[in-house]
Every structure is written in structure tokens, then in C-alpha cells.
């Protein structure tokens, strides 16, 4: 039945709307399983009842008329049990309920399977037969498998149909994605679609090859100029390295790379548009076929470039786009270049159907302070141009046509954020200490020059994590030692004499370099972090030499090693750093050997803390990755995002174990991750004894206000209570309750 299964799914995927999807399902399942009846019941969101929406075998007049509550009738029992019900004599079952309008009194055999999407029973798929027989295991397995495959298709089709109704009746609805950049945006959707479709360029030949080559080169020149203009619009927002993304776009259009392939095809008499489309689509397919999310994000960039040049090849008239005052960009795959095309004063948010929180678009959105959501997979974005919406970049929630009450609540959050930001201004020059005098250092996580001014304005006491991979990600080659030195020098000088902790190159997992491919079945458990750079000492040595050369005259550099899982990695890295230091001294650089620290992100490191603390100058916990590995959850995967919880008791107990053991060896411990930037999380970490908390600059004032308002002794009592609990939701509740009782409700994340 595997062939039939694939055939049905393919047909359903190509259906135009929900009624067509359901018609295909009931017709094809009845044919394949040779049953007399196939029906689909779907959940009505308003009533919660399950309604007969399509049937092949029962009376058509019953469609839309039969309603069953969860637990009511056989269908309702399938819903509550969330598993198949297979009966040879349905009428004998205690839950059987007869509906005369259906004409089902002739049918005895009954098999119903739930259609479940993201833990919600969307509906029930039912087959029936006249003779009294139990459907065999193969038939039941087929229907279960089909229901599981159809769940996502039905959810998407429902969403599309719902939005069609919403456009007419302006009903409120909600979609979920991945929070990519924090903040709230209330505005109007502006749908971004490719200006020219590479896939629809017809096959055509040219008569004048030279004229076609001239046309192609003119199109490349126009595209380069267009991209340069886009880059210039971001000049005030981003530094040279961030703008290098647009330089990378331009370099892809260089005559010695893609252009050569296209010119070769034109010289074989292929038209310029067709030659360009063929070459670009080949590159797009190569990127899309790769398992790594970073490479898939690059496919969007290549497609965007292809559409730009194709637009010029077709000599299409470029018209000014009409952007509203509160524009929220929405598209299937937003790119950084598309983001930059909107006048900054009009752009307030972004939503992408595909992508992750590590794409170039997400990186630049965070640098611009632009609320953004990625991975809103069920959103039929083509249908919502011009509609009102709310982007909740804190939780990854998208609200279409927000009702008056919902909009009022989000308006209050926006106003509260603005007032809160002003109310915290006076804290910038005050120390981060608890009401009973316990001092903690608050630092920032950064990777962009755009973060520097904001960090210093808000009272950052240094950098707890400088992500050195960002300049590598925004280039099409490894930056040279001198280029790296200039980048690092900017950071060290901006924060001097405050410490700047630079993490050595951390690529792999979901952060791969296009020019340094890492192809693995399971990249998160593979070649990443320190493993990559130790295997390539030439990369590691160039980077640490650049860091130490950049520190000349400042002496505020600290070097941190990512993804340490064993002592051998620390020792190997130390030997290379000491070698680079000796070389620089021999070259005449009057510099100091920087402190060397390790990041605790891998569970094995938890059980090596004593040995690591003896050998390292400091320890910093990467709570995001540590949580991800402890719970075996990819936090960028919306399907399991609800399992990822920084307040999970296993995570809290591990964090306490780390700091206790390190302090016993006299080694200071910091933490850089989302937990440190949450007021409640910061309270627990301070109670544990963490010496330094590093966070996003946006969250720093909120955390400082919280710490200054409570006593460490009280936070320790809160921690003791939390460590006894076994459920993260319960822990979150008691932490929020504590903050409210302490008069700190305003510091909670909206």
C-alpha cells in the first residue's frame, strides 16, 4: 500500500483548498481500501465539536449536519482516546450513536483513526463496511499512517480557508513560529514575492550572441548597483562587517564565478534569461538539498539574487513600492537584502514562513531591534497582504486581524516597554547588587558593532560573550588575520578597560559557513565548535593571534573555548594559544597572556568541572546549548519548542552543581544564555552563586532593576523551593509569583 499512500498524499498536496483536500481523501481511501464508506470529521474551533465535513458512501445531505462532542459516539471516543477504534459490529458498542440522516444503519464494520497535528486532534478519518468484520492489522496501519501524513496538509488547508473567511469577516486568528528577534510590532502586512520567477522562464534561443552577452552584462551591472544602494541604506544601522553581507551578494555576481557559467550557455545560443535561470536554479537546488539549516538559508539568498537579475533581463519597469507607515514584511523566505529595501522609519516587524533564528535575516533583525518571527509553517502568506497583524517576537506568536481586546493588551505592552525603558535609565551608572549588598557583574552578549552603544548606555560591565563567528558568517571566505584584528580591535577599544570575552570560532550545528561545508547526518552531535578549530590549527592560530594583537594597549581580552567536552581539548587549545603568544612576543608585540576560559555546554563537561576549574582561568556556562543537550531538544524546531524549558529541574540542578564545584576550586563562573537575561532566571542564578551574568543588552536594565530590589537571602529561599520541584511550569509559576509579591511585575517579559 506504500504506492497508494504516496499517491494520495501527492494528490492532496496539489489540492486548491480544504473542500478539495477532503473530497480527494474520502474518494481515494474508499477506492484503495475497497470499503463502502469513507468519511472525515473535523473539529469546529468555536464549539469544539467534530463535524462531518466530507463523505463518500453516506448521504451527502448529512455533511455539515452531524456534530459530535469529544467522547460522544464512536467518533467522539476516537477523539478522547487519541487512538484508533476498530469494531466488527459498531452498533453493539456502548458509545454507538445512530444518526438517521446519514443512512449508516446498513454498515457494521467501523474503523476510525484520529488526525493529530501538534498534539491537537484536528479530526477523525473513518471507513465503514456492511459485513461484520474487523479490519485487519494492515488496513488499520495504513489508515493510521495516512492520518499522520495528512494532518499537516489539513492544518494548512484549514488555515488557508480560515484566512479567506477572516478577510471577509475580519476574524481574529493566531499562528505560531520561532521567536527570532524580541519585541512587539503592531502594523500591516506587506507580502514579499519574487519579482521574477526563475522556474517559469521559457526555453528560448538567441540569434545575436554578442547582443545577448551585452544584455546579460548590463543586467549584472544594474543588479550590483541596486544591491549597493540597498547596503547604503543600512550604513547607519550596521558596521562594515555586517554590510559585508551585501558585498557577498555582489561577489556572487562576479564575472569569474556565476557569470562564466551563464556566458558559456549564451554562447551555445541559449537566451540570456533562460541561461541565467538554469544556472541559478541548479545552485538553488544544491543548497536546498543539503540538510544543514544554514545552507538552506543560503538558497533563499541565491534565489533572491536570481530574481533581481532576471528582472533586469526582462527589462521590467522598476516601480516604487508602496509601504505603509507601520510595515510588517511577510514572505516565504525573507532575506537581509529584502529587509533593507523598506525605509527604516516605516519598517516595524518581519515574518518569514521558512528559516531559523540563525539566518542572516534574523541576525540583522536583532541588530536593528526589529521584532521578527521565523518558521511560521502553516501561514498561507499569499492571502494576507494589507491585513492588520501583531508580531510577538518574544514568544513567536503572530495574530492576524487582532480584535479590539487583544490589540489593546498589546498596545499596553508596547507602552509599558517604552515607559519601562525610560524608568530604568537612572540605573545605568549604579552597581548590580542585591538589596543586602551582594555584588554581581552584568555583561552583554554581542557580535555586532550595532550593539556597542546600546550596551554601554545601559550600564554593561563588559562583554561576556563576543560571537566571533558573525564576521565569518557574513563573508564568502575566511577573513584574514588582519581583517579579524581590525574587527576585534573595535570591540576591545569600545569597551576598554572593561573585559571583553571572545569566544573562538563556533561553527557547525546550525551555524555553518557556505565556503567551508560541513555535511553530517546529525550536525549538533558532530563536528562543531572547538572540534573544528583544533582539527584546523591554521584557522585557530590566525584567530587567536588576531585577538591578542588587537588587545595591544588595552589588556582587556579574555579568550573562551566553545563546546569543550574533555580535558584534552582544553590542553590542546592552550598549547596553540601559548605558541601564538610566544610568536607575537618574538615579533615585538608587548602584550599580556589573556585569561583562558571554557564554555560548559556539553553534559560531559558537568562531570569534569573540578578538573576544568583547576586548569582554566574562568568558566562560563552556555545555558542555551546546555539546556538543548540535556533535554535532547532542538530549540529552533517549532515541533518540540514546548519541551525546551530553561527552568527545567534537570537544568537548574546541573547549573547548581557547576557553580558549587567550580567555586570549591576557587574559579569564578559566569553564564551567557537566555536564562541570564530573564529577571526570574537571574534571581535563581544569583542565588546559586554565579559571579557574572551575560545577556542581550535589551534585557540588562530589567535584570539590574530586579536584582537591586531583592535580597540574596530571599532569592536563596526561592531557589531551595524551586530545586525541590519536578515540573518546569510549576517552577515558572512560583518565580513569577515571587516577582509579583516583590513589586516587580513590571520586570517580567510580556
Automatic annotation (TrEMBL):
Xref: InterPro entries: GAF (IPR003018), GAF-like_dom_sf (IPR029016), PEP-util_enz_mobile_dom (IPR008279), PEP-utilizing_PTS_enzyme (IPR050499), PEP_util_C (IPR000121), PEP_util_CS (IPR023151), Phosphohistidine_dom_sf (IPR036637), PTS_EI-like (IPR006318)
Organism domain of life: Bacteria
Entries under Gene3D superfamilies matching the protein: 3.30.450.40, Phosphoenolpyruvate-binding domains (3.20.20.60), Phosphohistidine domain (3.50.30.10), PtsI, HPr-binding domain (1.10.274.10)
Protein name: phosphoenolpyruvate--protein phosphotransferase
Record has Ribosomal protein as a keyword: no
EC numbers on record: 2.7.3.9
Compartments reported by the entry: Cytoplasm
GO molecular function per UniProt: phosphoenolpyruvate-protein phosphotransferase activity
Enzyme type, top EC level: transferase
Amino acid at each position: 500500500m506504500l504506492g497508494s499512500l504516496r499517491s494520495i498524499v501527492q494528490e492532496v498536496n496539489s489540492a486548491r483548498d480544504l473542500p478539495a483536500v477532503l473530497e480527494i481523501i474520502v474518494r481515494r481511501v474508499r477506492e484503495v481500501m475497497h470499503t463502502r464508506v469513507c468519511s472525515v470529521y473535523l473539529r469546529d474551533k468555536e464549539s469544539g465539536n467534530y463535524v462531518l465535513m466530507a463523505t463518500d458512501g453516506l448521504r451527502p445531505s448529512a455533511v455539515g449536519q452531524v456534530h459530535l462532542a469529544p467522547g460522544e459516539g464512536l467518533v467522539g471516543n476516537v477523539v478522547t482516546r487519541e487512538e484508533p477504534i476498530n469494531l466488527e459490529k459498531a452498533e453493539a458498542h456502548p458509545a454507538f450513536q445512530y444518526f438517521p440522516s446519514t443512512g449508516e444503519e446498513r454498515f457494521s464494520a467501523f474503523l476510525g483513526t484520529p488526525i493529530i497535528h501538534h498534539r491537537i486532534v484536528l479530526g477523525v478519518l473513518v471507513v465503514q463496511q456492511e459485513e461484520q468484520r474487523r479490519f485487519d492489522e494492515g488496513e488499520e496501519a495504513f489508515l493510521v499512517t495516512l492520518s499522520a501524513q495528512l494532518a499537516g496538509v489539513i492544518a494548512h488547508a484549514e488555515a488557508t480557508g480560515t484566512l479567506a473567511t477572516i478577510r471577509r469577516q475580519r476574524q481574529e486568528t493566531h499562528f505560531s513560529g520561532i521567536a527570532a528577534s524580541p519585541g512587539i510590532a503592531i502594523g500591516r502586512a506587506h507580502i514579499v514575492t519574487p519579482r521574477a520567477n526563475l522556474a517559469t522562464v521559457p526555453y528560448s534561443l538567441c540569434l545575436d550572441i554578442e547582443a545577448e552577452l551585452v544584455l546579460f552584462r548590463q543586467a549584472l551591472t544594474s543588479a550590483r548597483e541596486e544591491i549597493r544602494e540597498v547596503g547604503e541604506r543600512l550604513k547607519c544601522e550596521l558596521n562594515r562587517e555586517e554590510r559585508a553581507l551585501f558585498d557577498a551578494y555582489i561577489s556572487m555576481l562576479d564575472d569569474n564565478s556565476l557569470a562564466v557559467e551563464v556566458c558559456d550557455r549564451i554562447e551555445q545560443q541559449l537566451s540570456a534569461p533562460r541561461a541565467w535561470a538554469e544556472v541559478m536554479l541548479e545552485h538553488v537546488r544544491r543548497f536546498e538539498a543539503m540538510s544543514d539549516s544554514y545552507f538552506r538559508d543560503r538558497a533563499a539568498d541565491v534565489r533572491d539574487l536570481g530574481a533581481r537579475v532576471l528582472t533586469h533581463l526582462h527589462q521590467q519597469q522598476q516601480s516604487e513600492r508602496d509601504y505603509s507607515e507601520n510595515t510588517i514584511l511577510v514572505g516565504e523566505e525573507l532575506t537581509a537584502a529584502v529587509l533593507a529595501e523598506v525605509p527604516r522609519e516605516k519598517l516595524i516587524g518581519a515574518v518569514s514562513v521558512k528559516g531559523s533564528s540563525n539566518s542572516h535575516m534574523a541576525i540583522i533583525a536583532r541588530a536593528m531591534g526589529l521584532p521578527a518571527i521565523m518558521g511560521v509553517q502553516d501561514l498561507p502568506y499569499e492571502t494576507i497582504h494589507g491585513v492588520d497583524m501583531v508580531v510577538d517576537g518574544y514568544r513567536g506568536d503572530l495574530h492576524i486581524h487582532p480584535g479590539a481586546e487583544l490589540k489593546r493588551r498589546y498596545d499596553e505592552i508596547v507602552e509599558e516597554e517604552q515607559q519601562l525603558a525610560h524608568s530604568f535609565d537612572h540605573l545605568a551608572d549604579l552597581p548590580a547588587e542585591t538589596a543586602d549588598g551582594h555584588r554581581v557583574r552584568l555583561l552583554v552578549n554581542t557580535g555586532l558593532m550595532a550593539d556597542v552603544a546600546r550596551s554601554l548606555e545601559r550600564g554593561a560591565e563588559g562583554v561576556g560573550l563576543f560571537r566571533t563567528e558573525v564576521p565569518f558568517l557574513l563573508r564568502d571566505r575566511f577573513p584574514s588575520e588582519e581583517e579579524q584584528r581590525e574587527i576585534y580591535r573595535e570591540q576591545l577599544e569600545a569597551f576598554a578597560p572593561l573585559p571583553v570575552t571572545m569566544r573562538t570560532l563556533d561553527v557547525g550545528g546550525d551555524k555553518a559557513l557556505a565556503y567551508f561545508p560541513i555535511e553530517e547526518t546529525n550536525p549538533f552531535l558532530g563536528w562543531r565548535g572547538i572540534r573544528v578549530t583544533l582539527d584546523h590549527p591554521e584557522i585557530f592560530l590566525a584567530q587567536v593571534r588576531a585577538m591578542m594583537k588587537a588587545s595591544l594597549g588595552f589588556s582587556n581580552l579574555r579568550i573562551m573555548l566553545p563546546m569543550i567536552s574533555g580535558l584534552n581539548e582544553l590542553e590542546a587549545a592552550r598549547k596553540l594559544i601559548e605558541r601564538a603568544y610566544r610568536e607575537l612576543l618574538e615579533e615585538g608585540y608587548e602584550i599580556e597572556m589573556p585569561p583562558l576560559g571554557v564554555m560548559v555546554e556539553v553534559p560531559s563537561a558537568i562531570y569534569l568541572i573540578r578538573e576544568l576549574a583547576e586548569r582554566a582561568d574562568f568558566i562560563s556556562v552556555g545555558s542555551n546549548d546546555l539546556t538543548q543537550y540535556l533535554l535532547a531538544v532542538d530549540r529552533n524546531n517549532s515541533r518540540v519548542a514546548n519541551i525546551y524549558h530553561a527552568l527545567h529541574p534537570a537544568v537548574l540542578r546541573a547549573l547548581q552543581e557547576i557553580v558549587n564545584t567550580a567555586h570549591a576550586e576557587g574559579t569564578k563562573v559566569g553564564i551567557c544564555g537566555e536564562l541570564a537575561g530573564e529577571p526570574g532566571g537571574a534571581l535563581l542564578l544569583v542565588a546559586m552563586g554565579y559571579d557574572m551574568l551575560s545577556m542581550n543588552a535589551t534585557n540588562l536594565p530589567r535584570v539590574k532593576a530586579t536584582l537591586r530590589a531583592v535580597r540574596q537571602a530571599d532569592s536563596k529561599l526561592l531557589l531551595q523551593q524551586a530545586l525541590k520541584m519536578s515540573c518546569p511550569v510549576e517552577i515558572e509559576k512560583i518565580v513569577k509569583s515571587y516577582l509579583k509579591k516583590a513589586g516587580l511585575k513590571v520586570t517580567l517579559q510580556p
